[in-house]
Design a protein that fits this description.
The complex is a heterodimer of chains A (264) and B (287). Helix content of chain A is 35%, strand content 24%. Chain A is an alpha/beta fold. Chain A folds into two domains: 167 residues, 3-Layer(aba) Sandwich (Rossmann fold), CATH 3.40.50.300; 67 residues, no CATH class. The termini of chain A are far apart. Chain B is mostly helical and 287 residues long. In chain B, helix 5 packs across helix 6. The two termini of chain B are 36 Å apart. The chains are: A alpha/beta (264), B mainly alpha (287). Chains A and B meet through helix 2 of A and helix 7 and helix 8 of B. The structure holds adenosine-5'-diphosphate and magnesium ion (MG). Adenosine-5'-diphosphate binds next to strand 2 and helix 1 of chain A.
Chain lengths: 264, 287
Protein backbone atom coordinates (compact mmCIF):
# COMPACT_ATOMS: atom_id res chain seq x y z
CA UNK A 1 0.00 0.00 0.00
CA UNK A 2 1.21 3.44 -0.88
CA UNK A 3 2.19 5.48 2.14
CA UNK A 4 1.94 9.07 0.97
CA UNK A 5 3.36 11.09 3.83
CA UNK A 6 0.86 13.78 3.02
CA UNK A 7 1.36 17.23 4.22
CA UNK A 8 -2.21 18.18 4.87
CA UNK A 9 -3.19 21.53 3.41
CA UNK A 10 -4.28 24.34 5.72
CA UNK A 11 -7.95 24.29 6.67
CA UNK A 12 -9.24 26.81 4.14
CA UNK A 13 -7.45 25.32 1.10
CA UNK A 14 -8.49 21.67 1.13
CA UNK A 15 -10.49 20.40 -1.83
CA UNK A 16 -13.92 19.01 -0.93
CA UNK A 17 -14.41 15.25 -0.57
CA UNK A 18 -18.09 14.96 0.18
CA UNK A 19 -21.06 17.06 1.15
CA UNK A 20 -24.11 16.30 3.24
CA UNK A 21 -26.90 18.52 1.95
CA UNK A 22 -29.97 19.16 4.07
CA UNK A 23 -30.00 15.63 5.39
CA UNK A 24 -33.01 14.62 7.48
CA UNK A 25 -33.59 11.22 9.01
CA UNK A 26 -36.93 10.43 10.59
CA UNK A 27 -37.39 6.96 12.05
CA UNK A 28 -40.76 5.33 12.37
CA UNK A 29 -42.47 6.60 15.47
CA UNK A 30 -41.48 10.12 14.47
CA UNK A 31 -38.02 10.05 16.00
CA UNK A 32 -36.17 12.88 14.27
CA UNK A 33 -32.63 11.52 14.43
CA UNK A 34 -31.24 14.21 12.12
CA UNK A 35 -32.69 17.51 11.09
CA UNK A 36 -31.24 19.50 8.20
CA UNK A 37 -27.67 18.39 8.61
CA UNK A 38 -25.19 20.14 6.34
CA UNK A 39 -21.56 19.22 6.39
CA UNK A 40 -18.75 19.63 3.92
CA UNK A 41 -15.93 17.17 4.43
CA UNK A 42 -12.64 18.21 2.83
CA UNK A 43 -9.69 16.06 1.88
CA UNK A 44 -7.36 15.68 4.84
CA UNK A 45 -9.88 16.83 7.44
CA UNK A 46 -9.95 15.21 10.85
CA UNK A 47 -13.53 15.95 11.89
CA UNK A 48 -14.97 15.05 15.27
CA UNK A 49 -18.70 14.73 15.72
CA UNK A 50 -19.17 15.69 19.35
CA UNK A 51 -22.47 15.47 21.13
CA UNK A 52 -24.59 13.75 23.79
CA UNK A 53 -25.87 10.29 23.02
CA UNK A 54 -28.96 10.22 20.87
CA UNK A 55 -28.03 13.29 18.83
CA UNK A 56 -27.72 11.33 15.61
CA UNK A 57 -23.95 10.87 15.34
CA UNK A 58 -24.17 7.19 14.45
CA UNK A 59 -27.08 7.88 12.16
CA UNK A 60 -24.99 10.43 10.26
CA UNK A 61 -22.20 7.87 9.81
CA UNK A 62 -24.66 5.21 8.68
CA UNK A 63 -26.05 7.58 6.07
CA UNK A 64 -22.56 8.50 4.83
CA UNK A 65 -21.62 4.83 4.58
CA UNK A 66 -24.79 4.07 2.62
CA UNK A 67 -26.12 1.66 5.24
CA UNK A 68 -29.18 3.87 5.48
CA UNK A 69 -30.98 6.29 3.19
CA UNK A 70 -31.74 9.79 4.40
CA UNK A 71 -35.41 10.69 4.62
CA UNK A 72 -34.61 13.92 2.80
CA UNK A 73 -31.46 15.49 1.44
CA UNK A 74 -28.44 13.73 0.00
CA UNK A 75 -24.80 12.84 0.27
CA UNK A 76 -22.62 13.87 -2.67
CA UNK A 77 -19.14 12.46 -3.12
CA UNK A 78 -16.77 14.55 -5.13
CA UNK A 79 -16.20 12.49 -8.26
CA UNK A 80 -18.39 9.63 -7.05
CA UNK A 81 -17.19 6.76 -4.93
CA UNK A 82 -16.82 3.03 -5.03
CA UNK A 83 -15.88 -0.01 -3.05
CA UNK A 84 -12.77 0.49 -0.97
CA UNK A 85 -13.20 4.26 -0.72
CA UNK A 86 -14.52 3.87 2.79
CA UNK A 87 -13.10 2.33 5.93
CA UNK A 88 -15.11 1.99 9.12
CA UNK A 89 -14.25 1.34 12.75
CA UNK A 90 -17.03 0.61 15.22
CA UNK A 91 -17.13 0.95 18.97
CA UNK A 92 -16.46 -2.78 19.25
CA UNK A 93 -13.47 -4.17 17.34
CA UNK A 94 -15.92 -6.25 15.26
CA UNK A 95 -13.40 -8.89 14.26
CA UNK A 96 -14.29 -12.35 13.00
CA UNK A 97 -13.30 -14.54 15.97
CA UNK A 98 -12.72 -17.58 13.77
CA UNK A 99 -10.15 -15.79 11.61
CA UNK A 100 -6.58 -14.81 12.40
CA UNK A 101 -5.45 -11.20 12.56
CA UNK A 102 -4.13 -11.21 9.00
CA UNK A 103 -7.26 -12.93 7.68
CA UNK A 104 -9.36 -10.26 9.37
CA UNK A 105 -7.35 -7.49 7.75
CA UNK A 106 -7.57 -9.30 4.41
CA UNK A 107 -11.39 -9.18 4.53
CA UNK A 108 -12.03 -5.97 2.50
CA UNK A 109 -9.81 -7.34 -0.28
CA UNK A 110 -11.22 -10.82 -0.03
CA UNK A 111 -14.72 -9.47 -0.54
CA UNK A 112 -13.41 -7.65 -3.60
CA UNK A 113 -12.25 -11.00 -4.99
CA UNK A 114 -8.55 -10.66 -4.26
CA UNK A 115 -6.53 -13.63 -3.05
CA UNK A 116 -4.34 -13.35 0.01
CA UNK A 117 -1.20 -13.69 -2.10
CA UNK A 118 -2.12 -10.65 -4.18
CA UNK A 119 -2.51 -8.36 -1.18
CA UNK A 120 -0.26 -9.94 1.41
CA UNK A 121 2.20 -7.06 1.28
CA UNK A 122 -0.54 -4.51 1.91
CA UNK A 123 -1.90 -6.54 4.81
CA UNK A 124 1.50 -6.88 6.45
CA UNK A 125 2.26 -3.23 5.81
CA UNK A 126 -0.81 -1.97 7.68
CA UNK A 127 -0.19 -4.46 10.48
CA UNK A 128 3.26 -2.98 10.78
CA UNK A 129 1.77 0.52 10.83
CA UNK A 130 -0.43 -0.37 13.80
CA UNK A 131 2.40 -2.27 15.48
CA UNK A 132 0.96 -5.76 15.22
CA UNK A 133 3.09 -7.46 12.56
CA UNK A 134 4.16 -10.06 15.12
CA UNK A 135 0.55 -11.02 15.75
CA UNK A 136 -0.53 -11.74 12.20
CA UNK A 137 -1.28 -15.37 13.01
CA UNK A 138 -2.96 -14.79 16.37
CA UNK A 139 -6.67 -15.13 16.91
CA UNK A 140 -8.62 -12.13 18.21
CA UNK A 141 -9.32 -13.75 21.58
CA UNK A 142 -5.57 -13.84 22.24
CA UNK A 143 -5.34 -10.05 21.98
CA UNK A 144 -6.11 -7.28 24.47
CA UNK A 145 -8.93 -4.81 23.83
CA UNK A 146 -6.51 -2.17 22.56
CA UNK A 147 -4.80 -4.62 20.20
CA UNK A 148 -8.13 -5.76 18.79
CA UNK A 149 -8.97 -2.14 18.10
CA UNK A 150 -5.66 -1.75 16.25
CA UNK A 151 -6.56 -4.72 14.07
CA UNK A 152 -9.89 -3.09 13.38
CA UNK A 153 -8.10 0.11 12.37
CA UNK A 154 -5.67 -1.83 10.19
CA UNK A 155 -8.62 -3.41 8.39
CA UNK A 156 -10.21 0.01 7.89
CA UNK A 157 -7.11 1.50 6.27
CA UNK A 158 -5.88 -1.48 4.27
CA UNK A 159 -7.72 -0.53 1.09
CA UNK A 160 -6.23 2.96 1.31
CA UNK A 161 -9.71 4.52 1.58
CA UNK A 162 -10.47 8.17 0.92
CA UNK A 163 -12.58 8.42 4.05
CA UNK A 164 -12.47 6.64 7.39
CA UNK A 165 -15.48 6.65 9.70
CA UNK A 166 -14.90 5.90 13.37
CA UNK A 167 -17.85 5.57 15.72
CA UNK A 168 -16.64 6.01 19.31
CA UNK A 169 -13.83 3.54 18.64
CA UNK A 170 -12.03 3.99 21.94
CA UNK A 171 -14.98 4.59 24.24
CA UNK A 172 -14.86 1.11 25.73
CA UNK A 173 -11.11 1.12 26.40
CA UNK A 174 -9.30 2.10 29.57
CA UNK A 175 -7.85 5.60 29.86
CA UNK A 176 -4.21 4.62 29.31
CA UNK A 177 -4.91 2.53 26.23
CA UNK A 178 -7.14 5.23 24.84
CA UNK A 179 -4.42 7.82 25.36
CA UNK A 180 -1.91 5.67 23.49
CA UNK A 181 -4.31 4.90 20.66
CA UNK A 182 -5.12 8.60 20.26
CA UNK A 183 -1.42 9.37 19.83
CA UNK A 184 -0.95 6.51 17.41
CA UNK A 185 -4.04 7.40 15.40
CA UNK A 186 -2.63 10.86 14.70
CA UNK A 187 0.71 9.40 13.62
CA UNK A 188 -1.08 6.93 11.41
CA UNK A 189 -3.15 9.66 9.80
CA UNK A 190 -0.03 11.68 9.07
CA UNK A 191 1.54 8.62 7.46
CA UNK A 192 -1.32 7.61 5.21
CA UNK A 193 -2.91 11.01 4.68
CA UNK A 194 -6.54 10.03 4.86
CA UNK A 195 -9.68 11.90 5.86
CA UNK A 196 -11.36 10.96 9.14
CA UNK A 197 -14.78 11.50 10.69
CA UNK A 198 -14.50 10.53 14.31
CA UNK A 199 -17.52 10.25 16.62
CA UNK A 200 -16.91 10.84 20.30
CA UNK A 201 -18.54 12.28 23.36
CA UNK A 202 -15.22 13.16 24.93
CA UNK A 203 -14.33 16.84 24.65
CA UNK A 204 -10.65 16.10 25.25
CA UNK A 205 -10.46 13.43 22.62
CA UNK A 206 -12.09 15.68 20.05
CA UNK A 207 -9.75 18.60 20.80
CA UNK A 208 -6.62 16.47 20.77
CA UNK A 209 -7.42 14.64 17.55
CA UNK A 210 -9.31 16.86 15.23
CA UNK A 211 -8.98 20.13 13.40
CA UNK A 212 -12.73 20.55 13.07
CA UNK A 213 -15.23 19.78 15.83
CA UNK A 214 -18.85 19.54 14.80
CA UNK A 215 -20.97 19.93 17.92
CA UNK A 216 -24.37 18.28 17.72
CA UNK A 217 -27.49 18.47 19.87
CA UNK A 218 -30.32 16.00 20.39
CA UNK A 219 -34.10 16.05 19.99
CA UNK A 220 -34.05 16.72 17.14
CA UNK A 221 -30.53 15.61 16.20
CA UNK A 222 -28.83 18.59 14.56
CA UNK A 223 -25.57 20.43 14.10
CA UNK A 224 -25.31 23.16 16.69
CA UNK A 225 -22.00 24.74 15.84
CA UNK A 226 -18.60 24.01 14.42
CA UNK A 227 -15.28 24.78 16.09
CA UNK A 228 -11.85 24.85 14.53
CA UNK A 229 -8.83 23.58 16.39
CA UNK A 230 -6.07 25.34 14.48
CA UNK A 231 -3.15 23.84 16.40
CA UNK A 232 -0.64 22.33 13.99
CA UNK A 233 0.09 18.62 13.65
CA UNK A 234 2.03 16.63 14.74
CA UNK A 235 0.41 16.94 18.15
CA UNK A 236 1.85 15.17 21.16
CA UNK A 237 2.19 15.46 24.91
CA UNK A 238 3.26 19.09 24.75
CA UNK A 239 -0.02 19.93 23.02
CA UNK A 240 -1.99 18.05 25.66
CA UNK A 241 -0.50 20.19 28.40
CA UNK A 242 -0.57 23.51 26.54
CA UNK A 243 -2.71 26.52 27.35
CA UNK A 244 -3.96 26.42 23.77
CA UNK A 245 -5.34 22.93 24.33
CA UNK A 246 -7.02 24.01 27.54
CA UNK A 247 -8.62 26.98 25.77
CA UNK A 248 -9.95 24.80 22.97
CA UNK A 249 -11.26 22.29 25.49
CA UNK A 250 -13.06 25.04 27.36
CA UNK A 251 -14.71 26.29 24.17
CA UNK A 252 -15.75 22.78 23.20
CA UNK A 253 -17.09 22.08 26.69
CA UNK A 254 -19.19 25.20 26.60
CA UNK A 255 -20.59 24.28 23.22
CA UNK A 256 -21.34 20.77 24.47
CA UNK A 257 -23.11 22.15 27.54
CA UNK A 258 -25.26 24.25 25.27
CA UNK A 259 -25.93 21.15 23.17
CA UNK A 260 -27.16 19.38 26.27
CA UNK A 261 -29.55 22.22 26.97
CA UNK A 262 -27.76 23.73 29.92
CA UNK A 263 -26.82 27.38 30.03
CA UNK A 264 -23.17 27.78 29.12
CA UNK B 1 17.52 -4.11 53.21
CA UNK B 2 17.56 -7.61 54.67
CA UNK B 3 14.31 -6.86 56.44
CA UNK B 4 12.71 -5.88 53.16
CA UNK B 5 14.04 -9.06 51.54
CA UNK B 6 12.59 -11.16 54.32
CA UNK B 7 9.26 -9.52 53.90
CA UNK B 8 9.03 -10.12 50.18
CA UNK B 9 10.19 -13.70 50.66
CA UNK B 10 7.54 -14.25 53.29
CA UNK B 11 4.84 -12.88 51.04
CA UNK B 12 6.06 -15.01 48.15
CA UNK B 13 6.03 -18.14 50.29
CA UNK B 14 2.48 -17.45 51.46
CA UNK B 15 1.29 -16.93 47.92
CA UNK B 16 2.99 -20.12 46.79
CA UNK B 17 1.20 -22.17 49.41
CA UNK B 18 -2.06 -20.87 48.11
CA UNK B 19 -1.03 -21.81 44.59
CA UNK B 20 0.04 -25.28 45.68
CA UNK B 21 -3.31 -25.83 47.35
CA UNK B 22 -5.10 -24.71 44.22
CA UNK B 23 -2.96 -26.95 42.01
CA UNK B 24 -3.60 -29.92 44.28
CA UNK B 25 -7.35 -29.32 44.22
CA UNK B 26 -7.24 -29.14 40.43
CA UNK B 27 -5.28 -32.40 40.23
CA UNK B 28 -7.69 -34.19 42.54
CA UNK B 29 -10.67 -32.97 40.56
CA UNK B 30 -9.09 -34.16 37.34
CA UNK B 31 -8.64 -37.68 38.69
CA UNK B 32 -12.00 -37.72 40.46
CA UNK B 33 -13.74 -36.87 37.20
CA UNK B 34 -12.85 -40.34 35.96
CA UNK B 35 -12.32 -42.29 39.14
CA UNK B 36 -15.64 -41.46 40.80
CA UNK B 37 -17.96 -42.60 38.01
CA UNK B 38 -15.88 -45.77 37.55
CA UNK B 39 -16.01 -46.47 41.29
CA UNK B 40 -19.78 -45.92 41.33
CA UNK B 41 -20.15 -48.31 38.43
CA UNK B 42 -18.00 -50.96 40.13
CA UNK B 43 -19.98 -50.57 43.35
CA UNK B 44 -23.28 -50.82 41.50
CA UNK B 45 -22.21 -53.99 39.71
CA UNK B 46 -21.00 -55.52 42.97
CA UNK B 47 -24.24 -54.57 44.69
CA UNK B 48 -26.22 -56.03 41.82
CA UNK B 49 -24.30 -59.33 42.08
CA UNK B 50 -24.80 -59.38 45.81
CA UNK B 51 -28.55 -58.78 45.57
CA UNK B 52 -28.91 -61.56 42.99
CA UNK B 53 -26.94 -64.02 45.11
CA UNK B 54 -28.43 -63.08 48.49
CA UNK B 55 -32.00 -63.36 47.24
CA UNK B 56 -31.29 -66.33 44.98
CA UNK B 57 -33.00 -64.56 42.11
CA UNK B 58 -33.38 -66.93 39.14
CA UNK B 59 -31.36 -65.92 36.08
CA UNK B 60 -34.48 -65.66 33.85
CA UNK B 61 -35.68 -62.85 36.09
CA UNK B 62 -32.41 -61.06 36.86
CA UNK B 63 -29.08 -62.57 35.86
CA UNK B 64 -25.99 -61.61 37.83
CA UNK B 65 -23.30 -59.47 36.26
CA UNK B 66 -21.14 -62.55 35.67
CA UNK B 67 -23.83 -64.10 33.46
CA UNK B 68 -24.16 -60.87 31.49
CA UNK B 69 -20.40 -60.85 31.02
CA UNK B 70 -20.50 -64.49 29.86
CA UNK B 71 -23.21 -63.64 27.38
CA UNK B 72 -21.19 -60.71 26.14
CA UNK B 73 -18.23 -63.01 25.54
CA UNK B 74 -20.08 -66.06 24.19
CA UNK B 75 -22.53 -64.15 22.00
CA UNK B 76 -19.90 -61.69 20.85
CA UNK B 77 -20.13 -62.76 17.20
CA UNK B 78 -23.90 -62.23 17.09
CA UNK B 79 -23.78 -59.04 19.11
CA UNK B 80 -20.99 -57.40 17.16
CA UNK B 81 -22.77 -58.10 13.88
CA UNK B 82 -25.88 -56.52 15.33
CA UNK B 83 -23.86 -53.56 16.61
CA UNK B 84 -22.41 -53.03 13.13
CA UNK B 85 -25.83 -52.84 11.57
CA UNK B 86 -27.25 -50.49 14.20
CA UNK B 87 -24.09 -48.43 14.06
CA UNK B 88 -24.27 -48.07 10.29
CA UNK B 89 -27.90 -47.06 10.29
CA UNK B 90 -27.18 -44.54 13.03
CA UNK B 91 -24.19 -43.03 11.24
CA UNK B 92 -25.92 -42.84 7.88
CA UNK B 93 -28.99 -41.28 9.48
CA UNK B 94 -26.79 -38.76 11.26
CA UNK B 95 -25.06 -37.92 8.01
CA UNK B 96 -28.39 -37.41 6.28
CA UNK B 97 -29.62 -35.38 9.24
CA UNK B 98 -26.61 -33.10 8.88
CA UNK B 99 -27.05 -32.69 5.15
CA UNK B 100 -30.82 -32.31 5.40
CA UNK B 101 -30.91 -30.20 8.56
CA UNK B 102 -28.09 -27.83 7.65
CA UNK B 103 -29.19 -27.71 4.01
CA UNK B 104 -32.75 -26.80 4.95
CA UNK B 105 -31.46 -24.22 7.42
CA UNK B 106 -29.39 -22.56 4.67
CA UNK B 107 -32.29 -22.70 2.25
CA UNK B 108 -34.68 -21.21 4.81
CA UNK B 109 -32.12 -18.56 5.62
CA UNK B 110 -31.84 -17.55 1.97
CA UNK B 111 -35.57 -17.39 1.40
CA UNK B 112 -37.89 -16.09 4.06
CA UNK B 113 -40.90 -17.29 2.03
CA UNK B 114 -39.59 -20.87 1.98
CA UNK B 115 -39.00 -20.69 5.71
CA UNK B 116 -42.48 -19.35 6.42
CA UNK B 117 -43.99 -22.05 4.21
CA UNK B 118 -42.16 -25.09 5.48
CA UNK B 119 -40.80 -24.46 8.97
CA UNK B 120 -44.14 -25.31 10.63
CA UNK B 121 -44.06 -28.72 8.95
CA UNK B 122 -40.57 -29.38 10.21
CA UNK B 123 -41.89 -28.66 13.68
CA UNK B 124 -44.88 -30.98 13.18
CA UNK B 125 -42.57 -33.78 12.05
CA UNK B 126 -40.44 -33.17 15.10
CA UNK B 127 -43.22 -33.16 17.70
CA UNK B 128 -44.95 -36.26 16.34
CA UNK B 129 -43.43 -39.26 18.16
CA UNK B 130 -41.42 -41.35 15.71
CA UNK B 131 -42.82 -44.56 17.20
CA UNK B 132 -46.22 -43.57 15.91
CA UNK B 133 -44.99 -42.73 12.41
CA UNK B 134 -42.66 -45.70 12.01
CA UNK B 135 -45.31 -48.40 11.34
CA UNK B 136 -46.73 -46.24 8.53
CA UNK B 137 -43.32 -45.73 7.04
CA UNK B 138 -42.74 -49.47 6.81
CA UNK B 139 -46.03 -49.91 5.01
CA UNK B 140 -45.04 -47.57 2.22
CA UNK B 141 -41.28 -48.02 2.09
CA UNK B 142 -40.28 -51.43 0.78
CA UNK B 143 -36.60 -51.33 1.61
CA UNK B 144 -36.00 -52.01 5.29
CA UNK B 145 -32.78 -50.02 5.24
CA UNK B 146 -34.46 -47.03 3.63
CA UNK B 147 -37.30 -47.21 6.13
CA UNK B 148 -34.94 -47.36 9.08
CA UNK B 149 -32.88 -44.50 7.72
CA UNK B 150 -36.01 -42.43 7.26
CA UNK B 151 -37.12 -43.09 10.84
CA UNK B 152 -33.75 -42.21 12.29
CA UNK B 153 -33.48 -39.15 10.05
CA UNK B 154 -36.89 -37.89 11.13
CA UNK B 155 -35.82 -37.73 14.77
CA UNK B 156 -32.33 -36.45 14.13
CA UNK B 157 -32.63 -33.68 11.56
CA UNK B 158 -34.61 -31.18 13.59
CA UNK B 159 -31.98 -30.24 16.17
CA UNK B 160 -29.54 -29.65 13.32
CA UNK B 161 -32.10 -27.55 11.46
CA UNK B 162 -33.14 -25.43 14.42
CA UNK B 163 -29.68 -24.85 15.84
CA UNK B 164 -28.18 -24.03 12.43
CA UNK B 165 -31.05 -21.65 11.71
CA UNK B 166 -30.41 -19.91 15.00
CA UNK B 167 -26.69 -19.73 14.22
CA UNK B 168 -27.17 -18.30 10.74
CA UNK B 169 -29.32 -15.57 12.22
CA UNK B 170 -27.04 -14.66 15.10
CA UNK B 171 -24.40 -12.86 13.11
CA UNK B 172 -22.87 -9.85 14.84
CA UNK B 173 -24.77 -6.86 13.45
CA UNK B 174 -21.64 -4.74 13.07
CA UNK B 175 -19.97 -7.46 11.03
CA UNK B 176 -23.09 -7.65 8.91
CA UNK B 177 -22.87 -3.89 8.31
CA UNK B 178 -19.20 -4.19 7.51
CA UNK B 179 -19.94 -6.80 4.85
CA UNK B 180 -22.55 -4.49 3.37
CA UNK B 181 -20.16 -1.58 3.29
CA UNK B 182 -17.61 -3.69 1.45
CA UNK B 183 -20.26 -4.74 -1.06
CA UNK B 184 -20.28 -8.44 -0.17
CA UNK B 185 -22.52 -10.64 -2.30
CA UNK B 186 -25.14 -12.87 -0.73
CA UNK B 187 -22.91 -15.86 -1.29
CA UNK B 188 -19.89 -14.16 0.27
CA UNK B 189 -21.94 -13.21 3.29
CA UNK B 190 -23.10 -16.80 3.69
CA UNK B 191 -19.69 -18.31 3.12
CA UNK B 192 -17.47 -15.94 5.09
CA UNK B 193 -19.82 -14.69 7.77
CA UNK B 194 -22.96 -16.70 8.40
CA UNK B 195 -21.58 -20.22 8.12
CA UNK B 196 -18.64 -19.61 10.49
CA UNK B 197 -20.96 -17.78 12.91
CA UNK B 198 -23.33 -20.73 12.81
CA UNK B 199 -20.66 -23.38 13.35
CA UNK B 200 -20.79 -23.50 17.19
CA UNK B 201 -24.59 -23.65 17.08
CA UNK B 202 -24.51 -26.34 14.41
CA UNK B 203 -22.09 -28.44 16.46
CA UNK B 204 -24.36 -28.15 19.50
CA UNK B 205 -27.25 -29.42 17.41
CA UNK B 206 -25.06 -32.16 15.99
CA UNK B 207 -24.32 -33.54 19.46
CA UNK B 208 -28.02 -33.82 20.18
CA UNK B 209 -28.70 -35.29 16.73
CA UNK B 210 -26.05 -37.98 17.34
CA UNK B 211 -27.97 -39.32 20.33
CA UNK B 212 -31.30 -38.97 18.58
CA UNK B 213 -30.24 -40.85 15.47
CA UNK B 214 -29.31 -43.82 17.67
CA UNK B 215 -32.74 -43.62 19.28
CA UNK B 216 -34.32 -43.39 15.83
CA UNK B 217 -32.37 -46.42 14.60
CA UNK B 218 -33.37 -48.47 17.64
CA UNK B 219 -37.04 -47.54 17.33
CA UNK B 220 -36.96 -48.33 13.62
CA UNK B 221 -35.50 -51.77 14.28
CA UNK B 222 -38.13 -52.56 16.87
CA UNK B 223 -40.88 -51.60 14.46
CA UNK B 224 -39.35 -53.12 11.34
CA UNK B 225 -38.44 -56.49 12.81
CA UNK B 226 -35.89 -58.59 10.99
CA UNK B 227 -35.80 -59.79 7.44
CA UNK B 228 -33.39 -59.57 4.60
CA UNK B 229 -30.83 -57.31 6.11
CA UNK B 230 -29.84 -59.12 9.29
CA UNK B 231 -30.64 -57.92 12.76
CA UNK B 232 -29.49 -54.96 14.79
CA UNK B 233 -29.00 -54.62 18.52
CA UNK B 234 -32.55 -53.54 19.27
CA UNK B 235 -33.89 -56.55 17.43
CA UNK B 236 -31.51 -58.79 19.38
CA UNK B 237 -32.78 -57.33 22.64
CA UNK B 238 -36.35 -58.01 21.64
CA UNK B 239 -35.55 -61.50 20.41
CA UNK B 240 -33.61 -62.40 23.57
CA UNK B 241 -36.55 -61.12 25.58
CA UNK B 242 -38.93 -63.54 23.84
CA UNK B 243 -36.56 -66.37 24.72
CA UNK B 244 -36.14 -65.19 28.30
CA UNK B 245 -32.41 -64.86 27.66
CA UNK B 246 -32.22 -61.92 30.00
CA UNK B 247 -28.44 -61.99 30.19
CA UNK B 248 -28.16 -61.38 26.45
CA UNK B 249 -30.71 -58.58 26.74
CA UNK B 250 -28.42 -56.86 29.21
CA UNK B 251 -25.35 -57.54 27.10
CA UNK B 252 -26.96 -56.02 24.01
CA UNK B 253 -28.23 -53.10 26.07
CA UNK B 254 -24.70 -52.45 27.32
CA UNK B 255 -23.52 -52.29 23.71
CA UNK B 256 -26.25 -49.82 22.75
CA UNK B 257 -25.29 -47.64 25.70
CA UNK B 258 -21.60 -47.89 24.80
CA UNK B 259 -22.43 -46.86 21.26
CA UNK B 260 -24.34 -43.82 22.49
CA UNK B 261 -21.44 -42.80 24.71
CA UNK B 262 -19.00 -43.27 21.85
CA UNK B 263 -21.04 -41.11 19.47
CA UNK B 264 -21.33 -38.37 22.05
CA UNK B 265 -17.62 -38.48 22.85
CA UNK B 266 -16.64 -38.48 19.18
CA UNK B 267 -18.88 -35.51 18.38
CA UNK B 268 -17.65 -33.61 21.43
CA UNK B 269 -14.10 -34.18 20.28
CA UNK B 270 -14.91 -33.04 16.75
CA UNK B 271 -16.54 -29.93 18.16
CA UNK B 272 -13.50 -29.24 20.31
CA UNK B 273 -11.18 -29.62 17.32
CA UNK B 274 -13.17 -27.21 15.18
CA UNK B 275 -13.66 -24.55 17.83
CA UNK B 276 -10.54 -24.74 19.94
CA UNK B 277 -8.83 -21.79 18.31
CA UNK B 278 -11.55 -19.27 18.69
CA UNK B 279 -14.71 -20.17 20.52
CA UNK B 280 -15.17 -19.49 24.21
CA UNK B 281 -16.83 -22.84 24.81
CA UNK B 282 -13.70 -24.69 23.69
CA UNK B 283 -11.06 -22.41 25.20
CA UNK B 284 -9.49 -23.70 28.39
CA UNK B 285 -9.51 -21.08 31.13
CA UNK B 286 -7.96 -21.29 34.54
CA UNK B 287 -10.43 -20.83 37.36
N1 LIG C 1 -32.92 1.99 13.56
C1 LIG C 1 -33.53 2.92 14.34
N2 LIG C 1 -34.88 2.92 14.49
C2 LIG C 1 -35.47 3.85 15.27
N3 LIG C 1 -34.83 4.82 15.95
C3 LIG C 1 -33.49 4.88 15.84
C4 LIG C 1 -32.77 3.92 15.04
N4 LIG C 1 -31.46 4.22 15.11
C5 LIG C 1 -31.36 5.30 15.93
N5 LIG C 1 -32.58 5.69 16.36
C6 LIG C 1 -32.85 6.86 17.22
O1 LIG C 1 -32.31 7.99 16.59
C7 LIG C 1 -31.69 8.85 17.53
C8 LIG C 1 -30.23 9.05 17.17
O2 LIG C 1 -29.54 7.83 17.34
P1 LIG C 1 -27.99 7.65 17.08
O3 LIG C 1 -27.67 8.16 15.73
O4 LIG C 1 -27.63 6.26 17.39
O5 LIG C 1 -27.38 8.64 18.18
P2 LIG C 1 -25.89 8.75 18.73
O6 LIG C 1 -25.00 7.88 17.92
O7 LIG C 1 -25.54 10.19 18.64
O8 LIG C 1 -25.95 8.32 20.17
C9 LIG C 1 -31.90 8.20 18.89
O9 LIG C 1 -33.03 8.79 19.50
C10 LIG C 1 -32.16 6.76 18.56
O10 LIG C 1 -33.00 6.18 19.53
MG1 LIG D 1 -23.81 6.16 18.52
Amino acid sequence: MAVHHHDTLPLGQRPPLLKLRHVDKVFSGDVVALKDMNLQVNQGDFISLLGPSGCGKSTALRIISDLMHPTRGRVDWEGGHGRGDLGVVFQEPTLMPWATVSQNVWLPFRLAGKSYGEVKDDVLEVLRLVGLEKFQNSYPRELSGGMKMRVSIARAIVTNPRLILMDEPFAALDEITRHKLNNDLLKLKAQIGCTVIFVTHSVFESVFLSDRIVVMAARPGRVLTELEVDAPYPRGEEFRTSAEYAAHARRASEALKEAMGEPA
Amino acid sequence: MSLADDQTLGAAAARDEDEIRRARAARIEKIAKWALPVAIMALAIMGWGWIVRANEIPHYILPGPNLVWDSLVNDWAILIDAAYLTGWITLLALLLAVVGGAGLAILFNQSKMLELSFYPYAVILQVTPVVSIAPLIFIYVDSKVAGMLLCAWLVAFFPVLSSTTLGLNSVDHNLRDLFRIYGATRWQRLRFLQLPSALPYFLGGLKIAGGLSLIGAVVAELVAGTGGIGSGLAFRIQEAGYRLNIARMFAALALVAAMGVFIFAALSFLSHLLLKNWHESAVAREK
